[in-house]
Amino acid sequence: MEQIESYRKEIEGYQISNPQQLEEFRIKFLGTKGLTKSLFAEIKNVPNEKKKEFGQVLNEFKQFAEEKFENAKASTGINETPAVQELDLSLPGDPIQIGSRHPITLVRNRMVSIFQRLGFSVADGPEIEDDWHNFTALNLPENHPARDMQDTFYIHQNPDWLLRTHTSNVQIREMEKGKLPIRIICPGRVYRNETVSARSHCFFHQVEGLYIDENVSFADLKQTLYFFVQEMFGKDVKVRFRPSYFPFTEPSAEMDISCFICEGKGCRICKHTGWVEILGCGMVHPTVLENCGIDSNKYSGYAFGMGVERPALLLYDVNDIRLFSENDARFLKQFGSAV
After folding, report:
1. Confidence check: pLDDT of 7 > 90
2. What one-character-per-residue DSSP string does 8-56 give?
3. 140-170 burial string, b = 16+ CB within 10 Å, else e?
4. Taking a C-beta distance cutoff of 8 angstroms, is the pair 181, 302 a contact?
5. In this structure, are residues 88 and 323 in contact, taking their beta carbons and an 8 Å threshold?
6. Structure confidence at residue 85 as a pLDDT band (50, 70, 90)
7. Assign residue 119 a region: left if phi > 0, alpha if psi is -120 to 50, beta otherwise?
8. CB 1: neighbour CB atoms within 10 A?
9. Taking each helix axis from N to C terminus, what angle separates 103-116 and 309-316, rounded to the nearest 10 degrees?
10. Is the pTM of this model over 0.70?
């Protein structure tokens, strides 16, 4: 009790004239390691019949110290808020740095928007797929030589589970739903066990398309792709179709566009041929339709598929596909104003 009275007199005589002295007072008397805290810790040493009386004295002492602190804080002007007129609200705010879309995202979104204007909707599916949806339903039975064209990352075998080698698995899943007609595009990431180089990677992105209805012809396919090329690369780009082979389409073709980097004269981008292959396409094979429960005598359709990286290389004149996946901020910042 004598100690408390001594502290009370010390508080009464404590001179506070600036914020520094105010903070020193707070730390000494009201801080977590201050005198008031230490006095409350002494309650355990007080006899039980005296604890109530001692507690009341301590509470009065704490209130006395807090009152001294609040009065001193008010007198030193700590609580005063700056006058509104001192704030210049016309000053510009702090700049906020924002990122930019990835070049692959820019090109993919551009492709998707073109096909959406033609009435295609976007479909999505799993990247880890079973053998049926990735191969067998697409007319690639076991030991089919066409499977050798796609080096596959297998996760499990017997039964086979793998990282999809194309987004055609999404087409199969949509056809299995049986809701006709179908007009979809399937953008997404695919994986193939290839050597990583300036022109190929073990993963890349695709946009595939599928249209199934009555009386669909190859002419419908060609006009769709002509429109896409003109919207994507410009009105002056030339197009050619070359016969090809895909087990899931018949007839099949590969489509090239004239190299707009060299205007068809030949350069490193087109391997000095004047042409750049951008997609494969064809009429959906009747076996694929039947595998998905669609009557091939009544319905027909076309399909196409293209990579996203190759058009991105052409549009932005990038010479190494690995730059798209290295996360180099110096490279990505260049696309801040790209659309």
Report:
1. no
2. HHHHHT----SHHHHHHHIIIIISTTSHHHHHHHGGGGS-HHHHHHHHH
3. beeeeeebeebebeeeeeeebebbbbbbbbb
4. no
5. no
6. low
7. left
8. 9
9. 110
10. no
- Whole-angstrom CA distances from 141 to 129, 133, 161, 234 are 16, 11, 15, 40
- Give per-residue pLDDT as tens, 251-260: 999 999 988 7
CA angle 210, 279, 177 (to 5 degrees): 15
The set of long-range contacts for 261-266, using a CB threshold of 8 Å and a minimum separation of 24, is: 261/314, 261/317, 264/238
In the predicted model, what is the mean pLDDT of residues 231-242?
91
For residue 183, give the 3-state DSSP assignment.
strand
With b for 16 or more beta-carbon neighbours within 10 A and e for fewer, the 88-104 pattern comes to eeeeeeeeeeeeeebbb
How many residues in the chain?
A: 339
Look at strands 161-163 and 128-130 and give their pairing. Answer: antiparallel
Q: Are residues 278 and 240 in contact, defined by beta-carbon separation less than 8 angstroms?
A: no
Residues near 61 by beta carbon (within 8 Å), at least 6 away in sequence: 4, 7, 8, 36, 39
Q: Which amino acid is at 69?
A: F
